[in-house]
Amino acid sequence: MEITEKVAYLKGLAEGMELNTDKKEGKLLSAIIDVLEDIALELCDIEEAQEELGDGLDAVSDDLEDVEDLLYGDDGEDDEPEYELDDLGEDEDCYATTCPTCEETIYFDESVLEDGEVICPNCGEKLEFDLEGLDETEDEEE
Hints:
Blueprint: H1 3-16, H2 24-72, E1 94-98, E2 105-109, H3 110-115, E3 117-119, E4 126-128, H4 132-141
Antiparallel strand pairs: 1-2, 3-4
Helix pairs in contact: 1-2
């Protein structure tokens, strides 16, 4: 039995008892039952609103899942890059680094290295590269 039904039952009992609402006790019981009825109706409204929010959240979650499938592929494997190393071309050098935040391997080509930064596709962490020290080290080795 729902709370609105229970309040309706109490209201029916009070009417069946033929409470005298002219006396203090009758007025009090009648007022209590009226307040209970208001509370029960408010609870019903809150439950309906909560159900609507839940349905909306489910729809947003489903849409987000579709977007994730489009962005990351729907194979469910996060361990492999979305492209093969051969896709970069035979003449291009391929570089890899490990993200310090999520510890995933990130693959990129020389153009990204020249930009000096890359965004981790896994966690969004911005990784920056300082190539100045690398040039000096290469010159010393030669």
